[in-house]
């Protein structure tokens, strides 16, 4: 059954970090998006002749339709501990994270949190979350089962941890391998799902476990890998102690075959020059998590080095909840802008919206499916309301261009801006009021 949406839409076609901004996007002030079998079959100027027979397009006024956002690094199990007060990464993990995550052996508990998490992601306009689960296979089943009922394109994986965490959260190199393999066989490629091999970070895995993770990543066709990298200076020093003889943090993962296409590294705040080069050469991906980096006092990510330099690294955006503090990619962009400001680089609105849509889709090797509004792509969309709040309405009255409107949205906006969210053409969220 076909359907259609009418309204202004914005979709990137190029890369504003590499070419003139003006030629890098397609904006249609009165657009029509026709959807068939979950995919876009037409996206262009409104033309009554292109509306399928019997279909009345849903018409959004004072709004802007954009591709659904991507949250490329997030921990759904940490939803109940967002805003945990304290020190930096390692204390925060021990004091809050490793306590909360012990509850996920209970599948009903996991399901309840997955529901809340997905509700909030859709409410924020995110249609593709890539999430860590916990060490418990039940936490992965609960997540994918909930995502299946919404028809999302999403990735997730069981956390691998066989040391330096409470006993109740540990697997072994062998059980972690076996359970991950069974979960990947069950979920990878089912619907729009992809499995993500998930060693939490080097300190909580023995060399044997990292080797097993490397084997999984190499053995299962198209599987992803996610972990944390160089988030915090104490963490980096600990990795150097735990893995003597390696040449830095990234080299630890590299030794176990964990650096390549579809490997997603959260943070990368403190990379060395050889590490930047290696990431670029390997086609590996950084996920920049600005609200988390500020909340945990981790440091200021070098977005300019990542994207504007002559040797760029694939870079996506993530919330990293529960260390991150907002589900909303608009808030994430706002904080990304401020971090860049502190490093002397200004992130324009078009660069920012590119990064949250096609830029992230490209960075995570999913741009054949998502990230832009064009025929053939999945109909994953977010409808943004320029006048979502009284101050937005008042402020937008003074905006002189699309670029200014977008910048105001990412400065003053949050979940309230999202009027509706579509996944595979189905309306999965609609703001009331
Ligand atoms: N490093 C290892 N585990 C985590 C986590 O859960 N959150 C963050 N922000 N960093 C980590
Ligand atoms: Zn994280």
Automatic annotation (TrEMBL):
Gene3D superfamilies: Metal-dependent hydrolases, Urease, subunit C, domain 1. It comes from the Bacteria. Binds 1 zinc ion per subunit. GO terms for molecular function: guanine deaminase activity. It catalyses: guanine + H2O + H(+) = xanthine + NH4(+). Its cofactor is Zn(2+). Its EC number is 3.5.4.3. Residues 65-427 form the Amidohydrolase-related domain. Keywords: Hydrolase, Metal-binding, Zinc. Pathway: Purine metabolism; guanine degradation; xanthine from guanine: step 1/1. It holds the Pfam family Amidohydro_1. PANTHER family: GUANINE DEAMINASE. Belongs to the metallo-dependent hydrolases superfamily. ATZ/TRZ family. Catalyzes the hydrolytic deamination of guanine, producing xanthine and ammonia. This is Guanine deaminase. It comes from Crenobacter oryzisoli. The lineage of its organism: Bacteria, Pseudomonadati, Pseudomonadota, Betaproteobacteria, Neisseriales. The gene is guaD.
């Amino acid at each position: 059954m076909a359907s259609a949406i009418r309204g202004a839409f914005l979709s990137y076609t190029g890369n504003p970090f590499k070419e003139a901004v003006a030629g890098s996007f397609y904006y249609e002030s009165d657009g029509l998006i026709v959807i068939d079998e979950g995919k876009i079959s037409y996206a262009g100027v409104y033309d009554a002749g292109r509306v399928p027979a019997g279909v009345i397009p849903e018409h959004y006024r004072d709004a802007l339709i954009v591709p659904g956002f991507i949250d490329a690094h997030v921990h759904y199990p940490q939803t109940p501990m967002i805003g945990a007060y304290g020190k930096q990464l390692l204390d925060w993990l021990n004091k809050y994270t490793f306590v909360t995550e012990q509850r996920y052996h209970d599948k009903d508990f996991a399901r309840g949190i997955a529901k809340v998490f997905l509700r909030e992601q859709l409410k924020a306009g995110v249609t593709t979350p890539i999430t860590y689960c916990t060490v418990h296979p039940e936490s992965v089943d609960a997540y994918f089962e909930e995502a299946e009922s919404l028809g999302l394109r999403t990735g997730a994986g069981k956390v691998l941890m066989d040391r330096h965490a409470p006993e109740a959260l540990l697997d072994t190199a062998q059980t972690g391998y076996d359970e991950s393999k069974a979960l990947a066989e069950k979920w990878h490629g089912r619907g729009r799902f992809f499995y993500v091999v998930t060693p939490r970070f080097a300190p909580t895995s023995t060399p044997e476990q990292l080797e097993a993770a490397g084997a999984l990543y190499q053995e299962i066709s198209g599987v992803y890998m996610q972990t944390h990298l160089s988030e915090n200076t104490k963490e980096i020093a600990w990795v150097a102690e735990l893995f003597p003889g390696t040449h830095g943090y990234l080299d630890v993962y590299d030794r176990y075959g964990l650096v390549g296409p579809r490997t997603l590294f959260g943070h990368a705040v403190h990379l060395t020059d050889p590490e930047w080069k290696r990431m670029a050469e390997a086609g590996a991906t950084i996920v920049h998590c600005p609200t988390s980096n500020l909340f945990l006092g981790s440091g200021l990510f070098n977005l300019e080095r990542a994207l504007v330099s002559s040797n760029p690294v694939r870079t996506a955006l993530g919330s990293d909840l529960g260390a991150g503090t907002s589900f909303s990619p608009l808030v994430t962009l706002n904080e990304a802008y401020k971090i860049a400001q502190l490093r002397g680089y200004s992130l324009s609105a078009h660069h920012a919206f590119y990064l949250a849509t096609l830029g992230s889709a490209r960075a995570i090797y999913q741009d054949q499916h998502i990230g832009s509004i064009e025929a053939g792509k999945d109909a994953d969309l977010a409808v943004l309301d320029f006048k979502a709040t009284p101050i937005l309405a008042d402020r937008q009255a003074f905006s002189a261009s699309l670029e200014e409107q977008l910048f105001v949205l990412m400065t003053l906006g949050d979940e309230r801006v999202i009027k509706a969210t579509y996944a595979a053409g189905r309306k999965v969220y609609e703001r009331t009021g």
